[in-house]
Amino acid sequence: MLYCKKCGVHLSGSMRRCPLCQGEVSGTPEEDPYPVLLKMERPYWLTVRLAGWITMVVLSVCAAVNYCFPSGGWWFLFVAAGLASAWLLLGIAFRKRRNPMKAIVWLLVAVSALVLIWDWRTGFKGWSINFVLPCLIPCMQLAVAAAAWVLRLRPSDYLLYLGLCVLAGFLPLIPLLCGALWMIYPSVICIGFSAVLLSTLVLLRGSALRAEIIRRGHL
Question: Hey, which residues does 90 pair with through a beta bridge?
Fold first, then answer.
């Protein structure tokens, strides 16, 4: 067994220096009691750096062209905002990659906020509440259900997130009742689909969903 004279402690394993004082140790090395952790490689960082470099090149080229030909307005800012939005969504997906259910819910919130902001900043033509959100929400609901089925998750791992996506499906009811829509069919389909999904969820997994809400909410 190894021994550190400075710290006065015995050490097991084959380390060359004391983990406390980093001083030299004496004695006979032994077999390490714990497996050696392999250094994890992160090949995706190369892809991230390459994507970042491409982004900067695109921004630089667009800024230079826009500066030389400014007659069409500062469209370079829209390119920058679009790339920033894409990086934001990729960042959310990357940070929440260990929990696909949470990632889908976060992406639903982020995309909804972004399309509303884009619609507002471009004169609010209404395309966000008439088409994008009523089509996006059912897609996210199906994504949660499909991911839960493919990954064979337990009900406690996906019911709360599926319930949140189902409740989000009733949000188009607000502009519909306020008369703010000029195309009602996508919103009506979204609300109807969410109602069917909610009734199915309550009938098949009602008790499990209630227990999950109580557990997560500390009720």
Answer: none
